[in-house]
Amino acid sequence: MANKNPNTSEMVKYKKRESQLKKEAVLLVLEELELLDDPVNNPISKAEICRRAGVSKTFLYSYRDELIKPINEAIKRQSQKMRVISQKQTFTETSKDRLIESLKRRIKALEKENKKLKNDNAILLGKLAQK
């Protein structure tokens, strides 16, 4: 004997709240990826957003206006930035060589500073041990 008039209103409310929380999670992940602004290491894609937010692509496509539209716009903005970055970073061989030499000098200076700090640290530890 089944209940002919089941009370499912609480179940419906719960599912709506759960969907709302998932939508907020998706938008939060999208905002985070936009703030990181790192198209190489943190690309904005539907798959990445689904993975980070813990939702399926089916869920995203269930809310086209609320989720898919802002995601597509963010993807478009990021791809435009990638084009600008790739156009700016055309180096000649000479400029590459100069950049490499500059970075080598910086590494040597940092290694020298690191060695000095390690030495200072050892002296301070020795003084501390004497007390």
Automatic annotation (TrEMBL):
It holds the Pfam family DUF6262. Residues 93-127 form a coiled coil. InterPro entries: Homeodomain-like_sf (IPR009057), TnpC-like (IPR046229). Keywords: Coiled coil. This is Transposase. It comes from Caloranaerobacter azorensis.
